[in-house]
Specification:
The chain is mostly helical and 121 residues long. It is built from 4 helices and no strands. Helix 1 runs antiparallel to helix 2, helix 1 crosses helix 4 and helix 2 crosses helix 4. It is flat, with a radius of gyration of 16 Å.
Length: 121
C-alpha cells in the first residue's frame, strides 16, 4: 500500500509537469495531456483501492482474485474514458494524449521504485 501511495503521488506530479509543458502548445494539446494523465491516474487509483481496501495478509489467495478483478476494471475504465474522450471532444491530439498516459503510467513506476530504493538506504 505504501508503494501504491507513492506511485499515485508521482503520477500526479508527472501529470502536472506534463500539463505545464503542454500549455504553450495550446488548448487542444493541453486538454489531451490532461485527459491522458488523468485517465492513467484514475485507473491506477481504482486499482489500488480495489486491491488494498480491507486487505488481509492472512488471505493471500483472495489477493490474487482482487488483482485480477482490479486489472479488468482498470482496463475497462481506461477504454471507456478514452472512447468517451474521442467521441465527445473534437481536435484531441492523440500523440499528446498517449504520451501523457504513457509518461504517467510507465515513468511513474520507475521513479516511485527508485524513491523506494533510496528510502531503504
Amino acid at each position: 500500500a505504501l508503494f501504491a501511495r507513492r506511485l499515485l503521488r508521482v503520477q500526479v506530479l508527472l501529470g502536472a509537469v506534463a500539463l505545464v509543458v503542454a500549455l504553450p502548445f495550446g488548448p487542444a494539446v493541453s486538454l489531451s495531456v490532461l485527459i491522458g494523465a488523468g485517465v492513467s491516474i484514475l485507473a491506477n487509483r481504482l486499482f489500488a483501492v480495489w486491491v488494498f481496501r480491507g486487505y488481509r495478509a492472512q488471505q493471500p489467495e483472495r489477493l490474487l482474485g482482487r488483482i485480477y478483478g482490479a486489472e479488468a476494471a482498470k482496463l475497462a475504465l481506461i477504454i471507456g474514458l478514452f472512447v468517451a474522450a474521442f467521441v465527445a471532444l473534437d481536435g484531441l491530439s492523440i500523440p499528446a494524449l498517449l504520451a501523457a498516459y504513457l509518461l504517467t503510467q510507465v515513468a511513474s513506476t520507475v521513479i516511485a521504485a527508485q524513491l523506494g530504493a533510496h528510502d531503504k538506504n
